[in-house]
Amino acid sequence: MFSNMINARVLFKDCVLLIKILVLCVLGIGCKNDDAIEVKIHNNSSPKKSSYSTRGYVLELISDDQSTFIHHEQIPNFMEEMTMYLKVEDQQEYLKLKVGHQYTFDMIVDKDDGTYIENIVPTGEIKAVPFSKEKPSEKWFKKPTFELGDKLPEFTLKTSEGNILNASNLGGSPWAITFIFTRCPLPDYCPMMSLRFNEVVNLLQEAENKNWNLVSLTIDPVFDTEKILNGYKKARGYEYDNWFFCRAEIDEVRKIGDPLGLSFDTEEFPIEHNLRTAVFDADGKLVEVFSGNKWTAQELAESIIGADKGT
Predict the structure, then answer these.
(1) Burial of 63 (0-12, 13-18, 19+ CB in 10 A)
(2) Which of 55, 117, 158, 215 is deepest in the core (most CB within 10 A)?
């Protein structure tokens, strides 16, 4: 019963996720060549919006969200070759997409509306899409293995101030955790997780609720040193006594993230990852998992307040 409940919550909240980064040649869908298109970068339309012209192959279509997994070429000075889960702005353009076909398109990176693609034009190139084990969606929409009420195994994190954080330190208050890395390039991925946590802080303060903790755990601990994490939170004004920016060895990160459905790969950069946020009660029992980035700060705050009240 608990498993059905958590899966239902994840399916309900699971929308736009992930960045999956793979080297194009490893995917087997073609390497850069002499006829690579010129990548155009347009930053003049709005200080909050940028447009990048590139091309890529469609790997999978997700009709429920009018989105596609598409592997695009390198965008100089912005992003390496990668497979991304991208929203298609225009429905008619989406309906014309075909798996294995290559398209040119504009990637719009909007700080308010997120990342999406438009002006999609087929190039005429077609390649077989290789799936060695599983489709992108099967990996990145991965369901948690935890059931509601389960507890995490013992773990040890280090905060940006160099202090130890573990289940004992967090005990006595409900707490939420999300996973980020400071070099994440897209505003609707890691930066959005941090913005949502900041909104949650404000909501909890407005509710005069002081019994909570937030944990932002990096999936890039080699780069995200304590100094980097400390600079990241200070530059953004995320300095609160009970919001901890943490790092740990990769095995320790996986110990927490794997049961929540987190998927990430640090072997290449940019890092491929999906998005997971979870709430635990004062006893360390799982209360709720938020998958993707469609959840709101209000929903998370209510989950934390509910955990504090035992509801």
Answers:
(1) exposed
(2) 117
Q: In degrees, to the nearest 5, what angle opens at C-alpha 38 toward C-alphas 37 and 40?
A: 130
**CB-based contact 18:140 (threshold 8 Å):** yes
Does the domain spanning 19-136 belong to CATH 1.20.140.150?
no
pTM, to two decimals: 0.73
Fold of 141-309: Glutaredoxin (3.40.30)
The residue with greater pLDDT, 101 or 39, is 101
Neighbour-count burial for 110-119, b at 16+ CB within 10 Å, e otherwise? beeebbbbee
In whole angstroms, what is the distance from residue 28 CA to residue 308 CA?
50
What confidence tens digit (pLDDT) does each residue in 264-275 have?
877 766 677 889
How many Å apart are CA 97 and CA 58, to the nearest integer? 8
Provide the sign of the torsion angle of the four alpha carbons 250, 253, 259, 265, taken in this order: negative
The strand pair at 213-218 and 175-180 is best described as: parallel
Q: Angle at which helices 297-309 and 190-206 pack, to 10 degrees?
A: 50
- Helical residues (DSSP H) of 174-265, grouped into ranges: 190-206, 226-236, 250-257
Residue indicated by tokens 């009240």: 309
Residue among 290, 286, 291 at smallest CA distance from 307 = 286
Q: pLDDT per residue over 45-92, tens digit each? A: 445 788 999 999 999 999 988 999 998 998 888 887 888 889 999 999
Distance between CA 186 and CA 111 in Å, rounded? 9
